[in-house]
Design a protein that fits this description.
The protein is α+β, with helices and mostly antiparallel strands. The chain is built from three helices and seven strands; from the N terminus they run E-E-H-H-E-E-E-E-E-H. The chain has a five-stranded antiparallel sheet with strand order 5-4-3-6-7, with helices on one face. The chain has a two-stranded antiparallel sheet with strand order 1-2. A hairpin with a 6-residue loop joins strand 3 (63-85) and strand 4 (92-109). The radius of gyration is 28 Å and the shape is flat.
């Protein structure tokens, strides 16, 4: 008879070996774990390539310029519209739910003297007004892909990308390792 405790309760299972099903499931799930590991490593590599092509060159080799907001455009998307009761009264009012996206059109001049206009999204509820000044960072070879030089639009996405790539690689290599997740008893 095998005996085990679960949440402080004693469980008795007659004529079974507790770990026999665990070792059998590990052996059967090992190829699936390798497949998940390969997928996670591939996802991490795609993320690393994306970082190397976008944010890292801007952060390391980007030239800076001062940009001025010339136009602000707000787009409202509606996800739900319905009539709801207002408190305990019998009157109903129309309620719209949705999101607002605020785009800024920022003009700046490159060091070569070429005027550029970039459309960028105002992130993290940034108030955008015409005439505001923002530091811009751009690559001399591709000034059309300029970004606002700030923690919210350049460094935060880069840090999140590094964390994502690191976690995906660690989990991928953990799944690819030759050791099963749960050791089988001797």
């Amino acid at each position: 008879m095998a005996e085990d405790r679960v949440w402080g309760l004693r469980m008795v299972v007659p004529n079974t070996k507790i770990f026999s099903t665990m070792s059998a499931s590990n052996a059967k799930s090992f190829p699936f774990k390798k497949l998940i590991g390969i997928g996670l490593i591939a996802l991490a590599l795609v993320g690393a390539v994306s970082l190397c092509m976008k944010e890292i060159p801007l952060a390391l080799f980007g030239e800076r310029a001062a940009g001025v907001v010339k136009r602000v455009e707000t787009i409202r998307t509606s996800t739900d519209s319905k009539w709801e009761k207002k408190g305990f009264s019998s009157t109903k009012e129309s309620v719209d739910r949705g999101t607002e996206l605020t785009f800024m059109y920022i003009e700046f001049t490159t060091k070569a003297g070429k005027p550029m206009e970039v459309k960028t999204l105002a992130t993290f509820n940034t108030e955008a007004k015409e005439g505001d000044s923002h530091p811009m960072v751009y690559l001399a070879s591709n000034p059309e892909r300029a970004k606002i030089y700030s923690a919210k639009q350049l460094r935060l996405p880069m840090c999140v990308g590094f964390v994502f790539v690191t976690v995906a690689l660690l989990l991928g290599f953990r799944c690819m390792s030759s050791k099963p997740f749960f050791p089988t008893p001797a």
